[in-house]
């Protein structure tokens, strides 16, 4: 007997169409870091099992700040290689480079015409980044960055009539951009007719914010953290161990969770728990009375067990660039199929004249 269709299966009748997932990451570093991995990328890998997945390396976003062209090209490939190395399967998921699908920029333009100036000005990430660079060093592209992000997401909308959700796995710091995306989708639907499904942020609990190893009050971040504060996925085992052993801990010697008084140990406990899948109380019990040294030594091993295979696979993928390029071409082709269709609908709804043949 055929299985009863799930609520998401409504469009095609017989085959259940899974929900969609879309996410993006900037190619602005030589390696992803532990915050990226636990806050977002690990979810990307897991979600491809239950979703139709689109994952993009957002090079258009990367040029919102000054950049070096050769470095951008290199980092785009390294980023893509790491995604495959982490377990994103090119046979099931579309991994692609944003600039390979020009509809991203095109939809961003349309959405920017629906965004209020003040509304864009309230984005905290823009305020943070632009205050560091000053007005003359801040591009208009940085200002409209979240609108391009909204376009990235909404291009992959399922048909609103199909009842399929659209999910976006990101870290906590992206919540406001997701809210803007929902607002723009709603506004478009209201003005031009039901076109977009409102996306849901998919933010992991607990690991949503990993902090700097040297400054446990601040987020682990490629732009703000010192090299000693950040754990790179592609880090060599020796330096990786050292950084963990030298991570700032707190006065006292007990391994206990306390966000206020023991921010350093708390961050390490979160990392340990997220990587090993052990609860924090179980870890506290395991290390009761054993001090910080043993705890850090074991944590370093847990981190290396996760990252070493990823590092090795990444290096192997980067050894055969033609193969990597082919994987990305396949991803772009799949993404284009959806993006082109969405954009046709958008053009029609907005009132653009169709091009004659
Ligand atoms: P970024 O490196 O800022 O471009 O971020 C890429 C992705 O990683 C986004 O989804 C962020 O929310 C997530 N992310 C970045 N840093 C952290 C962190 N320290 N903790 C958790 N998630 C993070
Ligand atoms: N702004 C996101 C970040 O800094 C990157 C991003 C661009 C993104 N486009 C996206 C994330 C679409 C999710 C969906 O991490």
Automatic annotation (TrEMBL):
UniProt entry tagged with the keyword Aminoacyl-tRNA synthetase: yes
Locate the residues binding L-tryptophan: 152
| Chain ranges passing through the membrane | none
Keywords from the named record: Aminoacyl-tRNA synthetase, ATP-binding, Cytoplasm, Ligase, Nucleotide-binding, Protein biosynthesis
Q: How does it associate, per the subunit comment?
A: Homodimer.
**By its UniProt entry, which SUPFAM superfamilies does this protein fall under?**
Nucleotidylyl transferase (SSF52374)
Mind telling me which InterPro entries this protein's record contains? aa-tRNA-synth_I_CS (IPR001412), aa-tRNA-synth_Ic (IPR002305), Rossmann-like_a/b/a_fold (IPR014729), Trp-tRNA-ligase (IPR002306), Trp-tRNA-ligase_bac-type (IPR024109), Trp-tRNA_synthetase (IPR050203)
Cellular location of this protein? Cytoplasm
* Pfam families recorded: tRNA-synt_1b (PF00579)
GO biological process: what's one of them? tryptophanyl-tRNA aminoacylation
Name the job this protein performs.
Catalyzes the attachment of tryptophan to tRNA(Trp).
Q: Which family does it belong to?
A: Belongs to the class-I aminoacyl-tRNA synthetase family.
Q: Where does ATP bind?
A: 26-28, 35-36, 171-173, 210, 219-223
Q: Which gene encodes it?
A: trpS
The protein's name is Tryptophan--tRNA ligase
Residue span of region Disordered = 1-21
Q: Name one GO molecular function term.
A: tryptophan-tRNA ligase activity
| Span(s) of short sequence motif 'KMSKS' region | 219-223
Per its UniProt entry, which superkingdom is the organism in? Bacteria
**One Gene Ontology cellular component annotation held by this UniProt entry:** cytosol
EC number(s) of the enzyme? 6.1.1.2
Matching entries from PROSITE patterns are given as:
AA_TRNA_LIGASE_I (PS00178)
Catalytic reaction(s) noted: tRNA(Trp) + L-tryptophan + ATP = L-tryptophyl-tRNA(Trp) + AMP + diphosphate + H(+)
């Amino acid at each position: 007997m055929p299985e009863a269709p799930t609520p998401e299966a409504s469009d095609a009748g017989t085959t259940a169409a899974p929900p969609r997932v879309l996410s993006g990451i900037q190619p602005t570093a030589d390696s992803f870091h532990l915050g990226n991995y636990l806050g977002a990328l690990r979810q990307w890998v897991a979600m491809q099992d239950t979703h139709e997945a689109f994952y993009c390396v957002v090079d258009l976003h990367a040029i919102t700040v000054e950049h070096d062209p050769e470095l951008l090209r290199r980092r785009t490939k390294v980023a893509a290689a790491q995604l495959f190395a982490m377990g994103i399967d090119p046979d099931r998921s579309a991994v692609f480079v944003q600039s390979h699908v020009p509809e991203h920029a095109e939809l961003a333009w349309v959405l920017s015409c629906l965004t209020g100036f003040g509304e864009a000005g309230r984005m905290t990430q823009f305020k943070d980044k632009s205050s560091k660079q000053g007005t003359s060093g801040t591009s208009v592209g940085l200002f409209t960055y979240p609108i391009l992000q909204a376009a990235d997401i909404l291009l992959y909308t399922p048909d609103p009539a199909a009842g399929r959700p659209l999910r976006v796995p990101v870290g906590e710091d992206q919540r406001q951009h997701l809210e803007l995306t929902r607002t723009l989708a709603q506004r478009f639907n209201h003005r031009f007719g039901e076109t977009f499904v409102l996306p849901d942020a998919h933010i992991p609990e607990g690991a949503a914010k990993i902090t700097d190893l040297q400054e446990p009050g601040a987020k682990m971040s490629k732009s703000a953290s010192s090299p000693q504060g950040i754990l790179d996925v592609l880090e060599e085992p020796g330096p990786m161990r050292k950084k963990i052993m030298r991570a700032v801990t707190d006065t006292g010697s007990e391994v206990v969770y306390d966000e206020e008084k023991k921010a350093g140990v708390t961050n390490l406990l979160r990392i340990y728990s997220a990587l090993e899948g052990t609860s924090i109380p179980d870890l506290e019990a395991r290390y009761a009375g054993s001090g910080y040294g043993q705890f850090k030594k074991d944590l370093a091993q847990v981190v290396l067990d996760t990252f070493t295979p990823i590092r090795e696979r990444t290096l192997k993928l980067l050894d055969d660039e033609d193969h990597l390029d082919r994987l990305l071409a396949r991803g772009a082709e799949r993404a284009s199929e959806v993006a082109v269709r969405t954009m046709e609908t958008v053009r029609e709804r907005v009132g653009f004249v169709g091009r004659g043949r």
